[in-house]
Write a structure and sequence with these properties.
This protein is α+β, with helices and mostly antiparallel strands. The protein is built from eight helices and five strands. It has two domains: 156 residues, GAF domain (Beta-Lactamase, 2-Layer Sandwich); 64 residues, Winged helix-like DNA-binding domain superfamily/Winged helix DNA-binding domain (Arc Repressor Mutant, subunit A, Orthogonal Bundle). It has a five-stranded antiparallel beta sheet with strand order 2-1-5-4-3, with helices on both faces.
């Protein structure tokens, strides 16, 4: 079994503070591990739009964007059909004429786009660019293996982000509940009413002022705390 410290993708995951950092690390490492790859990028489909989430340099962003604008190209095909696309020599390529012309002008001669199974995305691809004809031929198997491991790493990062978001939501909910309870208690003591009536008053006031209940309660608690502090001085 490969240890966590020996797998470059696991190392990237361990150092990553979020999905964006991980993706940048993955594209950089892909160029170093796949023979013939001069650049690499990650394409995903979100809300019916294709986006490049990360690239090893500025080169892939322009190449990917031209494909998205035309709705045609190897990255688009790989993300939308879940099938790999390989063009060993763009000078002989006929499938994507507009994209091919642009890519050749940048010096790119060879493209490999591999689909990635990313949870929550309707399409994703890892894209490799070579600067010589058929320069990615020797690295195709390495690229496929890398794409599979990259998908695993991205899915793990997404899972961790969901966990962090869920924990943050819980903390926010608990803080909101605490400040609302404090405001209810203050109103009960001041107006000599029960908790149900105090909460009803606070809700009416929040609706009247068009502010969230927790924000209104936070103001009341802060005002009371400020008054208490001044009273002790």
């Amino acid at each position: 079994m490969t240890s966590q410290t020996s797998d470059p993708l696991d190392q990237a995951m361990a150092r990553s503070q979020g999905l964006d950092t991980l993706l940048r690390d993955l594209t950089d490492r892909a160029v170093g591990q796949v023979p013939g790859a001069a650049a690499c990028s990650v394409t995903v489909r979100r809300a019916d739009r294709l986006l490049t989430l990360a690239g090893s340099s500025g080169l892939p962003s322009g190449l990917d964007l031209r494909q998205y604008e035309n709705g045609s190209g190897p990255c688009v095909d790989a993300a939308e059909t879940d099938s790999p696309r390989y063009s060993p020599d763009l000078t002989a390529e006929t499938r994507w004429p507009a994209y091919t012309e642009y890519a050749l002008a940048t010096g790119v001669r060879c493209v490999l786009a591999l689909p990635m199974a990313v949870e929550g995305e309707t399409g994703a691809a890892l894209n490799f660019y070579g600067m010589e004809p058929d320069s990615l031929a020797r690295g195709r198997e390495a690229a496929r293996a890398f794409a599979e491991r990259a998908a695993d790493a991205v899915n793990e990062a997404l899972r961790l982000e969901r966990q962090r978001a869920s924990a943050a939501d819980v903390r926010t909910a608990l803080l909101s509940r605490s400040v609302i309870d404090q405001a209810v208690g203050m109103l009960m003591a001041r107006e000599r009413i029960d908790a149900h009536r105090a909460l009803a008053r606070l809700r009416r006031a929040s609706q009247h002022r068009n502010v969230k209940l927790r924000d209104l309660c936070g103001e009341l608690v802060a005002q009371a705390s400020g008054g208490a502090s001044r009273g002790r001085q």
